[in-house]
Amino acid sequence: MSSTQAAAILGCRGPRLTPDERDFFAAAQPWGFILFARNCETPDQVRRLTGCLRAAVGRDAPILIDQEGGRVQRIGPPQWRQYLPPLDQCRAAGAQAPRAMYLRTRLIAAELADLGIDVNCAPMADIAGPDTHAFLKNRCYGTDAESVTANACAVAEALFDGGLLPVIKHMPGHGRAVVDSHTTPPVVEDAAETLRARDFAPFKALADLPMAMTAHVVYTAFDPAVPATTSPRMIRLIRDELGFSGLLMTDDISMDALAGDLAARCRAARAAGCDLVLHCNGDLSEMRVAVDTAGTLQGDGLARAEAALAARRPVRPIDIAATEAELEALISGRVHG
């Protein structure tokens, strides 16, 4: 088994690995995997799948998921809890929003750890504004930098306490996008000073987190044509100005906000300075292209990947019933001060 790891995070098509997927993963050696609702049916099935993914590459590869709660949660009823959209919960909890977000995320972390999932693509540090596109708006943690930072810190801490790694997204800030980056390239034309003071501020405050995901957003004040994911200027800003030294992955490389074919997107993201290419749809032919063009983890990227995995913390004990009760009291207004 090769010790070389592809600079990629990949998905699979369904709830069970096919023989072709197993053989491909064994040969390609992606750094990690990501699961979606299509991969998750029951707790036992997900545990088998996470075990099979790791067995395919012959190591304890990280397995990611987007379990934000609300519209973006890949596991849900009847097998798992349903959560409010984050913005709705933060508003309901008022001044106690950071505590409520901690409790909610600690429950999420316990659910994920039970399934063999050890990385959650959260917290969101994007700031909701009046014109934020609906695909993103109620996924945000607030409408100002201070509250978003406090709530995002609470989410990250809860994931660490649950034995998981957080991934901050979407760096350096997606909140001013007025179109859906899954289908259209968002262009943000606000002044650099405005972006630095507001949108970029939570990411700078959270720059010590071990992993982050880029935004497929053009910021014309810094790079007039190219989204952050494929912009060397924006990656330098993320590294040098915001101070993020951790492992940097793209948002889903298949999203239509990016120009060019899949190979061109992967090459551009890696050339810009992203450590890992994230490919989500489970299409085997596309994954072959992604692995071939993303290259391997080497040098500083490999060191950042190793440091990210080393940032895991021991699980802190949790009383599930008491955590649920406190969370419910906070968001129903029965606890104040």
Radius of gyration: 19 Å
Q: How many β-strand stretches?
A: 13
N- to C-terminal separation?
Answer: 56 Å
Number of helices: 13
Number of domains: 1
Helix-residue proportion: 40-55%
Largest sheet: 9 strands, parallel
Order the strands across the largest sheet as they lie in space.
Answer: 7-6-3-2-1-13-12-10-8
Tertiary shape: globular
Can you say what the CATH homologous superfamily is? Glycoside hydrolase, family 3, N-terminal domain
Q: Regarding CATH, which class? A: Alpha Beta
Low-confidence stretches: none
Task: Describe the secondary-structure layout.
Elements: E1 6-10, H1 19-28, E2 30-35, H2 43-57, E3 63-65, E4 67-69, E5 72-73, H3 86-93, H4 97-114, E6 119-120, H5 134-137, H6 145-161, E7 165-166, E8 168-171, E9 187-188, H7 192-199, H8 201-205, E10 211-214, E11 218-219, H9 232-241, E12 247-252, H10 262-272, E13 276-279, H11 284-294, H12 299-310, H13 320-331
Parallel strand pairs: 1-2, 1-13, 2-3, 3-6, 6-7, 8-10, 9-11, 10-12, 12-13
Antiparallel strand pairs: 4-5
Helix pairs in contact: 1-2, 3-4, 4-6, 4-13, 10-11
Describe this structure in words.
The protein has helices spanning 19-28, 43-57, 86-93, 97-114, 134-137, 145-161, 192-199, 201-205, 232-241, 262-272, 284-294, 299-310, 320-331, and strands spanning 6-10, 30-35, 63-65, 67-69, 72-73, 119-120, 165-166, 168-171, 187-188, 211-214, 218-219, 247-252, 276-279. By secondary structure, the chain is an alpha/beta fold. The protein has a single domain (6-331), classed as Alpha-Beta Barrel (TIM Barrel). Strands 7-6-3-2-1-13-12-10-8 form a nine-stranded parallel β-sheet. A hairpin with a 2-residue loop joins β4 (67-69) and β5 (72-73). The longest helix is centred in the first third of the chain and has 18 residues, at 97-114. The radius of gyration is 19 Å and the shape is globular.
